[in-house]
Design brief:
- By secondary structure, this protein is of the alpha/beta class.
- 47% of the residues lie in helices and 15% in strands.
- α2 links the parallel β2 and β3.
- 41% of the residues are buried.
- This is 3-hydroxybutyrate dehydrogenase.
């Protein structure tokens, strides 16, 4: 099956791409950075796996259309994400809108572009990479939290609209994953909260999590693979939470 993964050169995206490629799927890495795409695709090809890449800005309607036409997906993984940490009154309006475009409108429009071929084949799997912040909130992340909360509602609607086909859409919501995106957040939150970076990790990121550990990218990849198995064909419109017990409190 063909798997299209957005944000595919990042920590989570590439881990998912490797897992699907290793499992025998044809993977398409989609991202903004062509040189990074070439490098990561070459790594997969060197391992003997099927891999292609597509330069894709998920806020660009033409690039979305081109990607869907060139690489119609059996499995779509909406993973592209960005972050900005600031109080709302200090949040640049254009940056607020960009986060919503990348993490809510982008997945919706790419799913929209991929859906007709999925329905025609009577098979489709859409997996959104959400966040613990699709379920809870943290200060200084209004745009990110709004986008991730919206992703859950979007997924439920698309599941209902396509329940007549062999189609599922689900959202994986991990707690903090140690990726470059989170590393940048640590520095930004240290500044906002007037804490050291180690204090941010201990007092903000891991404090609500009973297991006190970052989620590994391999856990997200394994969950995505599970959602594409035959045994998961009736799991749809669901939120799979990898949070070490955070939301149990």
């Amino acid at each position: 099956m063909r798997v299209v993964i957005t944000g595919a050169t990042g920590g989570i995206g590439f881990a998912v791409a490797e897992a699907f490629a290793k499992a025998g799927h044809e993977v398409v890495l989609a991202d903004l950075n062509e040189s990074a795409l070439q490098e990561k695709t070459a790594l997969l090809l060197a391992a003997g796996w099927q891999a292609h890449y597509s330069v894709l800005d998920v806020t660009n309607a033409q690039q979305i259309s081109d990607c869907a036409a060139r690489f119609p997906a059996d499995i779509l993984i909406n993973n592209a994400g960005i972050q900005h940490v600031a109080r709302l009154e200090d949040f640049p309006p254009e940056q607020w809108r960009l986060l919503l475009e990348v993490m809510l409108t982008g997945p919706a429009m790419l799913t929209r572009a991929m859906l007709p071929a999925m329905r025609e084949r009577n098979f489709g799997r859409v997996i959104n990479i959400g966040s613990i912040h699709a379920l809870v909130a943290s200060p200084f992340k209004s745009a990110y939290v709004a986008a991730k909360h919206g992703l859950l509602g979007f997924s439920k609607v698309i599941a209902l609209e396509n329940a007549d086909k062999n189609f599922t859409i689900n959202t994986i919501c991990p707690a903090y994953v140690k990726t470059p995106l989170v590393e940048k957040q640590i520095a930004a939150q240290a500044k906002e909260h007037n804490l050291t970076e180690q204090q941010v990790i201990e007092q903000i990121m891991l404090a609500p999590m009973p297991q006190k550990a970052f989620i590994d990218v391999s856990e997200i990849a394994a969950t995505a693979l599970f959602l594409c198995q035959e045994g998961a064909k009736h799991i749809t419109a669901q939120t799979l939470v990898l949070d070490g017990g955070w939301t149990a409190r």
